[in-house]
Design a protein that fits this description.
The chain is of the alpha+beta class. The protein is built from 24 helices and 24 strands. β21, α22 and β22 form a beta-alpha-beta unit. α1 runs antiparallel to α2 and α12 packs across α13.
Length: about 650
């Protein structure tokens, strides 16, 4: 008994830490697979001993909310769902009843309240009893109706999600590998809980309704299926679902499993809900689970393989990530041979060693992860020196997570990512300076700071003799560098790599400070947070960057090498598109490319965005009648679709109107 209680204490501590990290801080210190395994072990031990320890995650619903958002108590507790991985268990649970089978979406649960046909409140699930009020952010979701035909009091629940396609697009737009999001759920959680709703609007957050809580005076014929249909009639996107019986359940589960392989919305299983509302409600609930529904978790496809070695991958921040390299295996239809171990804590928990027999699975059928280590030799040596620069490493512990860092401030890996961003297309756009070439030049001592790129001609002889180079390659590189020296201030600001400052924000900052770099460098926190799109985090990142004398000196040296074109801020009369947001798609005929059209829009005070949302004023697409996804979204939101001719007419009329005044 003592051993079992000791093990229960270990499990409660470990699972609680993992839960806090996942729900409060949008990070992972344990795989879903390992969490479920330990959770199930704790449930079993509690049944065997008849003891439930204080703080056991089997009894608590979620965790305390930690943010600056307003808090509000839910009218009724939002419970978790009991779960199974067995179709037979689902059939036994359903019995002779009809059920509604739907996706178990992997996002953030939201409660919406409507009165008099208008959205008045949106609250996150929080800890199940108290949530965070995110009403302004919910209004920026791409598909939540702000007004509906029904005028009574309506309360419904649903999941805020970010689609895989949007997740990959957003990550691709982040040049810094360390800034990329690990999964759509983390991105969604951070997007929904923003203090600046404009950031939420840029993330394409979707809402999928999955429960009607209250709708006064509406007869849904005692059927959850009818509830879903009624919600759809009010303009809500409802989670994909189907009606099932005990007999049809296995076939429908298999259909969902097949669809999951290409489903664009993150899901970690299914939900089975009793269709008979009165009967389901009569069953009540336990202290943790409702009895009218149950979750079905996918049985992970697990493959055995052999760990070859741990690869240590340094990053621009100095963090050195362990990556497991193993003998290739087929998993969920693809061949995989690598899996991130994330940090030393997880690596040590698995007691990894070269040659160990390990099992691999794909989290949510997407991301390769280690499931278990059968050998547990624990023979991996943590490197005392950085594999790139040879500098000393150190282990740092933050919030109970141990990670490895390179301590050398001049580490080439740290510089490499910075220089890669600096020469990228949207920054200085230097052709011929790939990451591999930069690595060679940095290693040879040719480049120590940004300004050194414009003096590579001092190393002509050495560069020409380098493998992969020759006189022609050298000449092309120097020509590209000379061309890159003629640039814009926004490109320079973006190229500096200030945390969170993308090209769009760089342009906004330049226009706000009237392209005065001196004023930008001296900007106060108060000045910055007043700018549209610049919140607390970006303002502090900006202040931190320019408070470092070394960064100021690097910029001084860089500016001496550049010919920055003079730009002016549009006058009030010229800014005819002020407050308007355009989305450009499809091929163009009047303009050479989208950037040219985008530049015109910005010169007239407007903004150009990458995706259609409720904030979009116009969609520009020469194929105005096509059934493209952007056209469909624009039509759903009643956003005008303009051809280039229509746009030019709009511009002419706007400028004519100003002149007429």
């Amino acid at each position: 008994m003592e051993d079992k209680i000791r093990r229960m204490k270990e499990l409660v501590s470990t699972l609680s830490q993992a839960g806090r990290a996942y729900y409060q801080e949008s990070r992972e210190i344990m795989s879903n697979y390992e969490y479920d395994k330990q959770y199930d072990e704790l449930v079993r031990l509690e049944k065997e001993t008849g003891i439930i320890l204080s703080g056991s995650p089997t009894q608590e619903v979620g965790y305390q909310v930690l943010s600056e958002l307003p808090k509000e108590a839910h009218q009724s507790p939002m419970l978790s769902l009991d779960k199974t991985k067995s179709i037979e268990d689902l059939q036994e649970w359903l019995g002779s009843q009809k059920g509604l089978l739907s996706w178990k979406l992997d996002g953030l649960t939201i409660v919406l309240t409507y009165e008099d046909g208008r959205l008045i409140k949106a609250v996150t699930r929080g800890n199940g009893e108290i949530g965070e009020v995110i009403t302004p952010n919910a209004k920026a979701f791409v598909n939540i109706p702000l007004s509906i035909p029904y005028l009574g009091r309506l309360v419904l629940r649903g999941e805020a999600v970010i689609k895989y396609s949007d997740f990959h697009r957003i990550n691709e737009e982040l040049p810094d590998v360390d800034a990329k999001y690990k999964n759509p759920r983390n991105l969604c959680s951070g997007s929904v809980r923003q203090l600046n709703s404009q950031i939420t609007a840029q993330r394409n957050v979707n809402f999928q309704a999955f429960a009607l809580v209250t709708a006064e005076g509406i007869d849904v014929e005692n059927s959850r299926k009818h509830q879903f249909s009624w919600l759809e009639s009010q303009g809500f996107a409802v989670v994909d679902h189907c009606l099932v019986t005990r007999e049809t359940l296995p076939e429908e589960v298999e259909r969902f499993a097949e669809a999951a392989k290409s489903y664009d919305i993150p899901s970690d299983g299914l939900v089975l809900l009793l269709d008979d509302i009165a009967y389901g409600d009569s069953l009540g609930h336990t202290s943790k689970f409702p009895r009218n529904s149950i979750a079905f978790k996918w049985a992970d496809e697990v493959r055995e393989t052999r760990l070859k070695y741990i690869e240590w991958s340094p990053s621009r921040t100095g963090l050195i990530n362990p990556v497991a390299v193993f003998e290739p295996v087929e998993l969920e239809g693809t061949t995989v041979s690598r899996a991130s171990v994330h940090n030393i804590s997880i690596m040590e928990a698995f007691e990894l060693g070269e040659g160990d027999e390990i099992t691999i699975y794909k989290a949510n059928m997407i991301i390769p992860q280690i499931a278990d280590n059968h050998t547990r030799s624990g023979k991996i040596q943590i490197p005392s020196h950085c594999p790139v620069c040879g500098g000393e490493t150190e282990i740092r512990q933050v919030d109970e997570v141990r990670s490895l860092y390179c301590t050398n401030p001049d580490c080439q890996a740290k510089k490499l990512k910075s220089f890669t961003l600096f020469v990228s297309r949207d920054a200085l756009n230097v052709d011929g300076l790939s990451e591999a070439t930069l690595e060679k030049f940095i290693g040879a001592g040719f480049i120590h700071e940004f300004a050194d790129i414009f003096h590579l001609d001092q190393h002509q002889e050495a560069i020409v003799e380098m493998e992969g180079f020759g006189q022609k390659s050298y000449d092309n590189l120097i020509s590209s560098i000379q061309k890159a020296a003629h640039t814009t201030l926004a490109r320079v600001i973006y190229g500096l790599g200030i945390a969170g400052i993308g090209l769009a924000n760089a342009k906004v900052l330049c226009r706000t400070f009237r392209f005065d770099i001196s004023a930008m460098r001296q900007a106060s926190y108060e000045d910055l947070i007043e700018i549209d799109g610049i919140g607390d985090v970006l303002a502090r990142a900006w202040i931190d960057y320019f408070s470092n004398p070394s960064n100021q000196l690097l910029l001084d040296h860089l500016l001496e090498e550049l010919d920055i074109q003079k730009e002016t801020v549009a006058t009030e009369e010229e800014a005819v598109f002020s407050g308007k947001t355009f989305v450009i798609t499809g091929s163009l005929t009047h303009f050479s490319n989208r950037k040219e059209l985008q530049a015109l829009i910005e010169s007239k005070g407007g903004k150009a965005a990458g995706s259609v949302s409720a904030k979009t004023s116009y969609l520009i697409n020469n194929d105005t009648t096509s059934n493209s996804s952007k056209n469909k979204k624009a039509k759903e939101l009643n956003i005008p679709i303009l051809s280039e001719e229509d746009f030019l007419t709009l511009l002419e009329e706007a400028e004519g109107g100003n002149h007429a005044d």
